[in-house]
Amino acid sequence: MKLGCIADDFTGATDLANNLVRAGMRVIQTIGVAASPLQTDADAVVVALKSRTLPRADAVAQSVAALRWLQAAGARQIYFKYCSTFDSTPAGNIGPVTEALMDALDTRFTIATPAFPDNQRTVFKGHLFVGDVLLNQSGMQNHPLTPMTDPNLVRVLQAQCRGKVGLIDHRVVAQGEPVIRERIEALKADGVTIAIVDAVTNEDLLRLGPALKDMPLVTAGSGVAIGLPRNFGLSPSSAASMLPTATGLQAVVSGSCSLATNQQVQEFIRCGGAALAVEPLRIGSGADVVQQALAWAEARLQAGPVLIYSTADAGGVKAVQTQLGADAAGQLVERTLAAIASGLVQLGVRQLLVAGGETSGACVQALGVPQLQIGPQIDPGVPWCHALLPSGEGLHLALKSGNFGSADFFVKAFGQLR
User: Fold this and answer.
1) Residue 96 contacts residue 160 (beta carbons within 8 Å)
2) Model confidence pLDDT, tens digit, residues 224-265
3) What was the pLDDT predicted at 35?
């Protein structure tokens, strides 16, 4: 193993793995710290945790445990991956996990940047943009668990960290590896322990990559991954993304309430797709929503992909949270959608797309999937994967971050797999 990665949610893990595969690495994603041997050789292993919104102490403990496993497996560099919208609260967990990993690796400096230009995430003068607007104007200010109201990443991260946070700005990055290294040394001399890095294009990330070659710990969204495989002598190759042939029925389970996923649900319906809304208040009232949804799906699966979703706009989410409580509502929906995903697989679904980080984590855990082999990209940040179920049967699986994907994502994904 060349690169060992720790991701704070399941869709983020596949997002990172996707960029590594595109750059030529053979990648395995484990669901949590692996309890069994890897199912194939890999250049990189991504340990997928569900730690983004855990209590800080739990997130730190799980991340350090993943680090110890990766070190024991021979990882030469560690990559801590978080969301390209820097999802966190004033208490963490990005800062506390980063500093815990730095302590465990006995390193006094690292970088941080969620930049991913392919998905319209850029960092300029330390500020995070989503498309043409600042983070706090992008819809992320309404996130039900991690509302992001400040686009200044230096300020956001400093509030979470003991050490001093600095900036490597776009003028430095544009001059390439030697100047980036000089800036890093200057920041170290000034007592900075973590530096936000500007990046507005893929070329910025490729210029950054060589400067990170000897850094024990890299922290970032998935974008920085495009510049790292070259440090290990690897280059892009289609062989890295080969998966078994897809078979079986097709379904989508969507729990994300992001603007992007709302558009994808509406486009699937507009194109004539069979779709069923799961209503949280009906779940809370004790209705047997799972069996009703599965009965609905069973009657339609032979005709093509079906969509079962709890996706709603910000107003709908707030109304449900008011009645059920934010945490209770989220957990209730996650458990329900995970049970529906398991039921769909029992009905013969072997091509499953899951939208939403928390939903993806719940579904993968319910299915008992231990590892994922990472395959070809559907849209930036979202690849098809292949897993072996506990029964030994194969399952093609795509785990989509709520904010990712074009409006026609649900419509085109299965065609791309064919």
Assistant:
1) yes
2) 999 999 999 999 888 889 899 999 999 999 998 889 999 999
3) 84
Residue in this structure with the two tokens 């779940």, named with its chain if needed: 283
- How far apart, in Å, do the first and last CA atoms of the chain sit? 31
Under CATH, which architecture does the 3-237 domain have?
3-Layer(aba) Sandwich (3.40)
Instruction: Answer whether 98's CB lies under 8 Å from 78's CB.
Output: no
User: Which single residue is written with the structure tokens 């109304």?
Assistant: 319
Place of tokens 């959608």: 337
Q: What confidence score (pLDDT) does residue 123 get?
A: 98
In CATH terms, the fold of domain 243-417 is Molybdenum Cofactor Biosythetic Enzyme; Chain A (3.40.980)
pLDDT at 418: 80
Nearest residue to 143 (alpha-carbon basis) of 308, 256, 49: 256
β-bridge mates for residue 374, sequence order: 385
Give, as one character, the DSSP assignment of residue 302: G
With beta carbons less than 8 A apart as the criterion, state whether 52 and 70 touch.
no
Sign of CA dihedral 336, 338, 341, 346: negative
Q: What residue ranges of the chain have pLDDT lower than 70? A: none
- Judge whether 223 and 368 are in contact, CB under 8 Å: no
Tokens of 265: 């649900």
Is residue 151 a contact partner of residue 128, using CB atoms and an 8 Å limit? yes
Answer whether 3-237 and 243-417 agree in fold: no
Residue type, 154: V
Spatial CA neighbour of 199 closest among 96, 278, 128:
128
CB-count burial class (<10 Å; 0-12, 13-18, 19+) for 66: buried
DSSP label of 304: S
pLDDT of residue 357: 86
Report domain extents, the chain. 3-237, 243-417
What pLDDT was estimated at residue 239? 84
Query: Tokens for 211?
Result: 């400067």
Look at residue 128 and give its three-state secondary structure: strand
Structural Rg of the chain based on CA atoms: 20
Q: How far, rounded to the nearest angstrom, does the alpha carbon of residue 105 sit from its chain's CA centroid? A: 24
The pLDDT score that the predictor gives to residue 325 is 78
**pLDDT at residue 11 in the model:** 86
- DSSP code at position 377: E
The span from the CA of 165 to the CA of 187, in Å, is 9
What is the rounded distance in angstroms from the CA atom of residue 373 to the CA atom of residue 342? 20
Residue for token pair 């004033």: 90
The whole-model pTM stands at: 0.81
Helix (H, G, I), strand (E, B) or coil at 132: coil
